Amino acid sequence: MSTPADRSELTGPAPIDLGTLRTAPKVLLHDHLDGGLRPATVLELARDCGYEGLPADDAESLAEWFAAAAGSGSLVRYLETFEHTVAVMQTPAGLARVAAECALDLAEDSVVYAEVRFAPEQHLERGLTLDEVVHHTLLGFEEGIARARELGREIRIGCLLTAMRHAARSREIAELAVRFRDRGVVGFDIAGAEAGHPPSRHLDAFEHMRANNAHFTIHAGEAFGLPSIHEAIAFCGADRLGHGVRITDDIEIGPGGGAVLGRVANYVRDKRIPLELCPSSNVQTGAVASLEEHPFDVLARLRFRVTVNTDNRLMSATTMSGEMLALVRTFGYGWSDLERFTINAVKSAFIPFPDRLRLIDDVVKPGYAVLIG
């Protein structure tokens, strides 16, 4: 496999294939911890904790089941796959192991910064408190980061704490996010089925985040339309939109390719509100019909702040390199485009401005300069 160092004396752009993509520095903003477990780890943790509900008893078959179940075209069915992963993440050891392996797997794919989210309220079945759940998860991230460094790979991870939009604990989770923000938590999120659960039902949580000058993103515009996006930005004040693909409901493309943007779409673009787009997942959940019909390219050409994300690496059988390769093959992107999408993600990260600048100037730009040639 080629690496940037291998090209030190070469000129011209590197070929864009999975091998070279795995060497490119990447920034990931939308990745669910409980959607990225290794199949073998799911099996081992299930044995350790006595969970007997798995649909397969070997890693390969289990991986195939997750991909098939998640590819049903229904967000509700997609979310049901998490019953199995969450079930094996109920102990300190289970949480820490999953977090450590997440860090290692992302670092192996040359992800240099990632924001990984999970819902602490879903990990209380064996008596852990919310604080204990977050504590052990953050310890796992630290362990994985240290192990990655021993292997010569640098990664930084910020944790996002998610509240489930159908539940009534969002204010409590927002308080938890603020409580842990100097210990590895960088923001707050709400997730779950959108229909019937508008973000405005959680205003007190978002008000708490704003009162404490803390960051938050909102899953909006994935399975539900423009009203979800409008509420997320107009009433809740979201810093970013999780998915946001349905922003195209407010964009009219003319016969000649020109675009007319409605007021919501104009606002999202003008305010540079980042879109956490997850191409493979968006197809699996039925948010878009196919990758060819994904609005990523339209939004990129219209200069929305688009970012590339994995969402759930286990369910989508994907990586950041895989998502980038799919976009390259579908829309013909080159290294400069991928660099732009990566810089978009850095600019949108919930870390201090000087840290974002260092990532861009010291890591992303030099890494892509070698690949661009």
Automatic annotation (TrEMBL):
InterPro entries associated with the record: A_deaminase, A_deaminase_dom, Ado/ade_deaminase, Metal_Hydrolase
Cofactor needs: Zn(2+)
Enzyme class: hydrolase
Binding site for substrate: H32, D34, G192
Residues flagged as site, Important for catalytic activity: H243
Domain of life: Bacteria
Active site location: E222 (proton donor)
EC number per UniProt: 3.5.4.4
Annotated keywords: Hydrolase, Metal-binding, Nucleotide metabolism, Zinc
Cofactor binding note of this UniProt entry: Binds 1 zinc ion per subunit.
Entry keyword Zinc: yes
An example Gene Ontology molecular-function term: hydrolase activity
Annotated TM spans: none
Catalytic activity, as annotated: adenosine + H2O + H(+) = inosine + NH4(+); 2'-deoxyadenosine + H2O + H(+) = 2'-deoxyinosine + NH4(+)
Adenosine deaminase domain segment(s): 25-365
Binding residues annotated for Zn(2+), in chain numbering: H30, H32, H219, D311
Role description: Catalyzes the hydrolytic deamination of adenosine and 2-deoxyadenosine.
Family: Belongs to the metallo-dependent hydrolases superfamily. Adenosine and AMP deaminases family. Adenosine deaminase subfamily.
HAMAP family: A_deaminase
Name of the featured protein: Adenosine deaminase
Designated gene of the protein: add
